[in-house]
What we know:
Chain A is an alpha/beta fold.
Amino acid sequence: MNYKFSKYNIIIENNQDNVLVYNSFTGSFCEMEKSVYEQISDNNEVTNTIKYFDALKEEGIIVPLFLDEYQRVVSIEKERMYKQNPESVYTVIALTLACNMQCEYCFEAKQNSTHIIDHAVVKDLIIYLKKQIEYNTHLKTFAVSWFGGEPLLGYNEILEICDEIKPFCEERGVTFLSSMITNGLLLTDERVKTMVERCNLYRVQVTLDGMQDTYCNIKKATPFAYNTVLNNIVTAANRLEVVVRLNASKSNFEELKKVAAMLFEGLHLKNKIKLYIAEIKDYTNCFKADCHVFNYGEFELAKNEFYQYLENEYHIEVGNLIFDRQFKDTTCGLIRVANMVIGPQGELYKCEHGLGNPNDVVGTIQDGCFYNDAYNKFCGIYHFDKCKSCSIFPICLSGCRSQQISFGEKSVDCDGITNSLILSLKKYYKKEVSHEGTDQR
Amino acid sequence: MRVLIKGKQRAGLIGLTICHHHELGCDCNSGQGCGCLGLCPKD
């Protein structure tokens, strides 16, 4: 069998003698002599007489001549997407779409709901969750993400559900975990302590949009609320993993550096919280025209700038893109058939962005999945034509399916992702070479 | 040739899980309000 240079190799010219090669399918990152690189990349066929043949093959730098690399990725994607009886099930549960804040960019802004899940639906939900645990006989981990609206508006219901599901999992040798996306206003220390114990809550994500004035303006919140959220972040960080998400647009981007300074220096949260920056997108035309979203290609640059700022100022390496962006079989966990989003009426969705939209309902907890158009819109293989020849396809997989539907090909900043990756790889190389701690073949 | 980061080995089509958290589906950090946090807890 002869071999060929993998189409998923990304080449970085290093110096006149060596090149760096990263393979986006295996995640391997190698340094090799230019002469070797020229031999394997120029030839259509690579034989086992080539120098470092075994290593090149093991790292996926060269692949069998007749391998269709694109179809291999797609086959793995399908296998993971449609896997029955998986080892892990992940469920997002929104017990309410009501919220105690009004973020101007919220994709649920138009819901205007005050409803919190009925007691009868809670009972049905518990039955549904138990069925998922029991029927997936290979299950090792059952994870719930509490979502909303604001999930803590359904705090008592969260406890009621976990008081049933946690022991049910334990009796079956299944690990039960929960995490939460919250605005943090109701995230008191007492609640965190209780949820860690009764819900196996291991992580919370809280969003900050800026310093006090910006935050209050965007969220229609008061200074008291802002300071309460900050205080709750500080106390929660003593009990579990806290991730602070900074929602970024062109309007607030520069201010987010001040937020980082406030968190790390003012509140002494360096090494106690994780921080990342996320792009605000106009999903539903729900926010003001003066919230300037990033244009195509701008956010990746802004993100790199922000993370470089954190590294320079605080020596914090945030969001290492080499490890963030790896081939993870599917672009999102929710498109895997076993994973679902559940709304406050017991309706099922395949994406949080569908919450509250009847056209996105794919089933109910009482009657199961409908396998309708809304379901097939997510559970299928949808890749752009340009992706078939793209060297970063395994780590991108055409991006978020929801964004594909909303924004088409512009949903993925291909050049931006590639450039960010190359930047991270160069930094990694520089660090490794200076530490001289690599596996030499 | 130096291997700076070892590639992940996959058993044919089975696709070995990279880590526990990715098995749960946490992935990209695109899209506000979604459950994907963009950071692997192992990082």
